Structures are given as structure tokens and as C-alpha cells.
Amino acid sequence: MSSPRKSKGRPHGRLRATTYLVVGGAAAVAAYLTPEAPEPARPVVAALAESPRAVEAPLAPVWRSRVDTLGRGETLVAVLERAGVSRSEAARALQQTDVLDPRQLRAGMTVTTSGMSTDSMPAEIVVQPEVDRVVRLKYLAGAWKAIEERLAWRTDTVAARGVIASSLYETMHQAIGRNLPAPKRSELVWKLADLFEYRIDMSRDLQKGDSVGLLIERRVAPDGSPRDAKILAAALTVGGKPVEAIRFRGKGTLGDFYDQEGKSLRAAFLRAPLEFRRISSVFGMRRHPILGILKAHRGTDYAASSGTPVRAIGEGTVIKAGWSGGYGNVLEIRHRNGFVSRYGHLRGFAKGVRPGKSVGIGQTVAFVGTTGLSTAPHLHFEVLVGGQQRDPRVALRDKSGWPIERREKGAFTALRQRLLAQIDARSTGAPHLASAND
């Protein structure tokens, strides 16, 4: 009985062993083929902290400037306080210099403070009290040091031309344009009118279609802005006739203006008794504004505001200063060569003007009014030659001044040709830098 059990149990034992062997081998293969598990991920913040790219390097110091302006009624210390300078340090900086007068600092003056971005206080303060002067305050070795700099101006020449359309004033304003600021353009026009006042009455003689050319010497500030100018030459064509003005200074002259023939523009008489003038009527027949009848008007009326100064047209002696019927207050001045000038409807006379008193050319002798037979403030002006009333426009014409000396005529002619050529060549061009030979 026992023998058969043993023979039945052997197959089962071999089967169990085989199973263990297969399973164990499969486990070993599986273990060999399975990859290792990754390490747990580190926090992102920690990873970034360890990266060298994530650490911001400190910014390098840079030079910075701050521009400010001085306000009206403001102190320079207040401007510096806005720039980060303490009041005490600002006061100390200004005390270190004697080239800045606080009383002369103008509103709108530029103040620049500069320094390194890492510094708490500027290393340099730049103040420009004038257009051609700069003061630098530098902080060196614990103290402020002032350095004054002078900026250079430059000079150039500008030419302009125009044709009279309405008035000399408007024509020249347009011709000069931005080459000068508006106030300086106006000033230049009045200089031009005064220049020719011995030859041309700009209110009457200059007409539509007449032309004017001008050459000026201009001063330009260091910041590039034109500031002022003086006339070098002018050429007018009035009624088809040329009249020139050339500035000339020779060995025998002090420097004056001469016409194309070399005669001084200063003559014995001015062409008009008013500087700022507008004519209401001219010599000839007219209907009297009060009497209402046609009668000879022996003179010229200049419309002007009451109180406008009246000037003597030439040197002479007062022969009358008082009331005279329809003239109202009238002034009469005797000049050389039998000339008498008469000024009517005056409001009054200048101080010291009385019969027997001598007066000079251009001197204020009276004031515009509306006395006598007058409807509105104006000046009635007459010229008498040999006791006869003459048209002032004719009587005062061509009273030329003294000519240039013969030995200077060649130099004057050469200068005239060169200046007039510049007017023709550069009337529409850019400004020309002046040189010692210009």
C-alpha cells in the first residue's frame, strides 16, 4: 500500500518546484527591466534661488541731470531744495561764490543740477544768469568751487527786399521775417525811417509799388537767438528815383550815412515835423473843414494824437509863439536862406520856447493840439521862402548835406558797390557770417 503513495507524490513535488523557479525568474526579469523611481521634485522656489541667473546684479551708478527754472519772486536756494539739496548746503554753496548776485537773478533763469545716481546730493550746479554767462558750482573735496564761463556771440549779415504794398512797416516786417524777433523788426523799421528823414517823408513820399532793400549786421546770442541789428546799407526807389544810404567811416569821417553820390544824408532840414506821423491832407486846394468853402491850403496837415511832440525841422530862431486867429496857438521859426517854418493848432509850447530863443534841428518845440479852426487834433505845417508860402514837399526837397572828402571817394565807391551787391545776392538767401572785411 505504501509504495503506490510515494509514486503518486513525486509528480506534485516536481511541479511545485518548477512553478517556484518560473515565478522567481519572472520576478528577477521584472526587477531588472523596471527603471529606478525618480527622486522627489524639489520646490520651484528653492530651485530658482540656487540659479545664478535669478540673482539681480546691483545697477551701476549713472550721471543724472535735472533742469529747473527760477520762478518769479523765488530764491535760488528754493530751486536747489527741489533738486534734493538741503537748505543749509544750498546756502553754503552760494556763499562760496562772489560771481552770483541774488538781486540780479532773473525769473526763468535755467538751473541745472547733476550728480551720480547713487549720491544723495548733486556734484555740480550750473546757473546761467545771462545769455552769455554760465556759472558752475562744483563740489570737490568737501567744498564748493565756482567757475565762471563766458559764451561767445557771433555776428552775421542779413539782406532783405520788399515792394511797398500798404506801408513801409508791414513790408519790412515781412521781408525781414524770422531773422529778427518782432520787437527788433519794428525798431529797425523806425531806424530806417529816421535814416531817410532828411530826404523822404515816409508818410507822403513813399507810395505803393516803391521798393526797399536793406542790409543789416545782426548780433546772435550763444543760444542761437538773434538779438539786435544795425543798418549797413539801404536802397529805396521812390517814384522811380533811387535813394541810397551807405554807412561809411573813413579817415576824415566819424561814421555816417551817405547817398549814392557820397553826400551826407544829414541836411539842413528834416522832411517832416513829426516822428510818428500820418498825413490827413496835402498841399493844394481843399474844402475847409469848418468854413465849408474852397480855399488854398498853404501847407500840410499831419493827423496825430493830442500831445504828440512837434520838432523843429531845422536850426533857427523863434520869431513867434502865441495865438494867431484860425491857426490857434502857432509857432514860427526863422531859418537860414530866408526859410521860415510855421506850426499851427498847437496845444502848447515846449519849455523855454519863446521869441528870440534859438532851437536845434529835431528839437521838441511844441505839442499837437486842436486850437483855432480845427475839428480834431492835428498839426498844420507850412514853409515860407522869402515870405511866400511854398509847398513843403517841394521847398524841402534835395537839401543835401556835406559830401565825402575827395580823398575818401574811392573807398566809399568800393564799399557802396560791395554792400549793394550783397543786398542783391542774398535778399532771399541764408544769413552770411560777417568777417573783418565785410
UniProtKB/TrEMBL annotation:
Keywords: Hydrolase, Metal-binding, Metalloprotease, Protease, Zinc. The keyword Transmembrane does not apply. It is found in: Cell envelope. Signal peptide: none annotated. It holds the Pfam family Csd3_N2. GO terms for molecular function: metal ion binding; metalloendopeptidase activity. One of its GO terms (cellular component) is cell envelope. Residues 191-283 form the Csd3-like second N-terminal domain. Residues 296-392 form the M23ase beta-sheet core domain. It comes from the Bacteria. The keyword Zinc applies. Its main location: other. InterPro entries: Cell_wall_metabolism_enzyme (IPR050570), Csd3_N2 (IPR045834), Dup_hybrid_motif (IPR011055), M23ase_b-sheet_dom (IPR016047). One of its GO terms (biological process) is proteolysis. Its cofactor is Zn(2+). This is Murein DD-endopeptidase MepM. The lineage of its organism: Bacteria, Pseudomonadati, Gemmatimonadota, Gemmatimonadia, Gemmatimonadales.
